[in-house]
Specification:
alpha+beta; Alpha-Beta Plaits; 2 domains; 16 strands
């Protein structure tokens, strides 16, 4: 939570079309900042500008450019910035990060920050599997709940997550949910499977519990036989590499 006093203002400059592991860079950065408990962040879209390549980019009704400049701004303490800066630099890529000292005169009233996730570790041997059961129609802050959970898991460095869509089943309300030909159901069961260390999964539980209003969360012990992934150099093919993760 921000308090009156010294702080830093961070400005991130990148192009609208920039990506990070195949996803929109600015959207990924905002998710990262949100789930790391940053007090607030705003993205601004430019209508004209140029960068290091000295190519002028501007909006046009005829030619819609995806290279327009974007700026993300947030204000935080120097200590918290130091904690997230290495990951932030990786996500910004060829963009630019500017940091300025500033003074907070009046601090906004905000809820307590989400718990700080533990550092990433290599998984070997004993681990745990978390299964999260929700409905396809469940929402969180205007977006599908299962998509918000994936963003939260990724921002908190969980090893991986897979989303499964049920074709038949029922839950606490005893209603049968079933896929039918030529009928697009939006009330199917959704299962998210996550495997990581017990410490990381339990540290993430408070976040999940605050997001899942109605659903089921279970933990079970597992043995890791093999956990490996290929290095992905670009966004292309990223989904194939991710599909091998839990």
């Amino acid at each position: 939570m921000l308090n009156p006093g010294k702080a830093v203002k961070v400005s991130i400059y990148l192009s609208e079309g920039s990506t990070h592991h195949g996803a929109s860079a600015y959207s990924t950065i905002l998710d990262f900042l949100f789930f790391r408990g940053i007090a607030g962040a705003t993205a601004f879209k430019g209508i004209a500008g140029f960068g290091a390549d000295h190519h002028l980019h501007s909006t046009s009704l005829i030619d819609i450019s995806d290279r327009l400049p974007l700026k993300i701004e947030f204000i935080e303490t120097q200590e918290k910035l130091n904690d997230i800066l290495p990951r932030l630099q990786e996500m910004v890529g060829s963009g630019m990060i500017e940091v300025q000292e500033t003074m907070i005169i009046t601090a906004p009233r905000t809820p307590a920050p989400v718990p700080k996730p533990s550092n990433s570790v290599k998984i070997e041997g004993k681990a745990q599997m978390m299964r999260i059961f929700v409905g396809e129609s469940d929402r969180w802050q205007g977006k599908p709940l299962y998509e918000a959970l994936v963003s939260a898991l990724r921002a908190n460095d969980l090893a991986g997550v897979t989303v499964h869509r049920g074709i038949l089943g029922y839950g606490a309300h005893r209603r049968v949910h079933k896929d039918k030909p030529l009928h697009l159901s939006h009330d199917s069961s959704i299962l998210l499977s996550v495997i990581d260390t017990e410490e990381k999964l339990r540290s993430f539980l408070p976040i999940i519990e605050s997001m899942v209003i109605e659903g089921l969360i279970v933990l079970s012990d597992v043995d890791i036989i093999k956990y490996s992934h290929r290095t992905v150099e670009s966004g292309e093919g990223d989904s194939q590499a991710e599909s091998s993760k839990p």
